[in-house]
Amino acid sequence: MSDNVPHEHADGTAASCCGVSACCTSGEQSVDATTTVRQAKTEAGCGCVDDASDQALPVVVIGAGPVGLAAAAHLAERGLDFLVLEAGQQVGAAIAEWGHVRLFSPWRYDTDAAARRLLEPTGWSAPPADRLPTGAELVRDYLAPLAKVPALASQIRTGTRVVAVTRDGVDVTRTVDRDDHPLLVRTVAADGTVRDLRARAVIDASGTWGRTNPLGHSGLPAPGEDRAAPHLAGPLPDVLGRDRDRFAGRHILVVGMGHSAANTLLDLAELAAGAPGTRITWAVRSASVTRLYGGGDADGLPARSALGTRLRHAVEAGTIELIRGFTITRLATAGGALQVVGTTPDGERTLSADTVVGATGFRPDLDMLREVRLELDPATEAPIKLAPMIDPNFHSCGTVPPHGERELAHPEKGFYLAGMKSYGRAPTFLLATGYEQVRSIVAALAGDREAADTVQLDLPETGVCSTDAPADDAQIAVEASSCCGAAPAEPVTIDLREPAGLGFATGQVHGYSGETEHANA
Predict the structure, then answer these.
(1) What is the extent of the structural domain holding 323?
(2) Which phi and psi angles does 280 have, rounded to 5°?
(3) Domain for residue 421, yes or no?
């Protein structure tokens, strides 16, 4: 039997061949639900596949978080073949690790339009638009149902870690005929099985969770940091729940000045009220914490104002000891505690703590991309055209202008960074922005240049880092990206073929530049 001709049963129905049922007919389905029709037939050398064309290969999406699944939803709507690869054992695995944290942004901004269009026919109802979900609710009420819709379910592989992306048959140094080779994605399954997948395009939406910045200064780990692991907690521990016993009645040092640090500090303050002996120290490198405190009652961002006001009160009340201008130079263990040595304007100082929470931000995993040609900004490690729009020295969430496929493209044809990973080391990412990124990328892959170049953002005209604060001010937290959310407003449409403008102002000093204005705050 030729591989190009379907084999038939006596009753005239087509038998399976090359890993698919009804081979070479309109009713083709993969025998293995984790493999696409084209992938199964390509790997088996089967017919009905034009191996000379990358169009016969799937688009591989790395990461089954909100942005990765949004990419899948848009690919499904466009009728493009795709696979979603997720290192965790469930969709939204990274978010599940901080499921106790509540987002800044309400549900209105946490779901993708194409995803909603796939979900609604299944009977799914969108949660209340103005409610702030926790990470666990985002997974339970949105990502998990989305992963089960027929258009996506068979195309998602969990427990599959991507360890490298390259060009099939050539390394990063090869230029001649480079684009004639499809992309190749190397994966490792939970059982250690290594598999190479060929792709027409790759959208890396794997995020930055799990790749934390070090505690040491100058971007480097402090001497002794590797040996201090038993004393180090992740950036968003569940202080009042799962991890309570690790913190109650102990001395905790929190390092960092972002919203992750603020939420952990406030949880620790609540814990200390009912757990005698709990001590909280907060160390920051900056001379000012005004950027995190916000503008108080004058702040146009209610959630940020509530968070900053509560944190300021806890410091002023003595519940939290704040140490400014503290730069960690080395770590050592002594007497069962961790000795954190650092420099201050007054000289060297040693802090002794039982546990250190490193809320120092994240950086992207670029090791897996060494064999693809990237064009990254040397400062932010973001795509070079996007970098000036998100530079944390000058931008917060509210001043990042909209952007799409053209800003996210690299010299490597068909390869894109999307979502939080596209922002590199900048902590200013919003879910709504990520959804628009992948909508634009998928439109370009489908050949719809006009749609790819027109960004439609449902964002406020002023201040995309705000939301209505909860009634009791008790649950203020971070966006999935460790940034912030948005407040209701009319949609804003910006054509990327025209200058993107200055972004959306929040009325506050933005980025690191604001730290110099209030050195004693």
Answers:
(1) 225-358
(2) -130, 125
(3) yes
> For position 399, what pLDDT does the model report?
59
User: How far apart (Å, rounded) are the C-alpha atoms in residues 358 and 212?
Assistant: 8
CB 382 within 8 A of CB 376: yes
**In this structure, what are the phi and psi dihedrals at residue 351, rounded to the nearest 5 degrees?**
-110, 130
The strand pairing partners of 383, in sequence order, are: 376
Give the C-alpha separation, 65 to 115, whole Å: 12
Residues 206 and 229 in one domain: no
pTM: 0.78
- Answer yes or no: do 380 and 405 share one domain: yes
Neighbour-count burial for 272-309, b at 16+ CB within 10 Å, e otherwise: beeeeebbbbbbbbbebbbbbbbbeeebbbbbbbbbbb
Do 118 and 257 belong to one domain?
no
263 within domain boundaries = yes
- The count of domains in the chain is 3
Residue 18: count of CB within 10 angstroms of its CB = 23
Which helix (H) or strand (E) segment is 265 a member of?
A: helix 259-274
> Domain holding 150: CATH number?
3.50.50.60
Interhelix angle 302-316/259-274, rounded to 10 degrees, is: 50
Which residue is it, tokens 């500090």? 265
Are 333 and 231 a contacting pair, CB within 8 Å? yes
- Residues of the chain with pLDDT > 70, as a percent, come to 73
The stretch 437-443 carries a mean pLDDT of 97
State the virtual CA torsion across 49, 52, 57, 61 in degrees, nearest 10.
Answer: 170
- For 240, the token pair is 């009042």
Asked if the structure places residue 252 within a domain, the reply is yes
Angle at 348 between CA 342 and CA 354, to 5 degrees: 45
CA 453 to each of CA 383, 436, 456, 493: distance values in angstroms, whole numbers, following the listed order: 17, 11, 10, 11
Q: Final residue of a domain: which of 423, 453, 483?
A: 453
Contact 223, 341 (CB under 8 A): no
Inter-axis angle of helices 66-77 and 431-445, to 10 degrees? 30
Instruction: Evaluate whether residue 369 is within a structural domain.
Output: no
On whether both 206 and 72 belong to a single domain, the answer is yes
pLDDT of 343 over the 70 cut: yes
Q: Give the helix/strand (H/E) hosting 344.
A: strand 337-344
Alpha carbon 426 to chain centroid, angstroms: 12
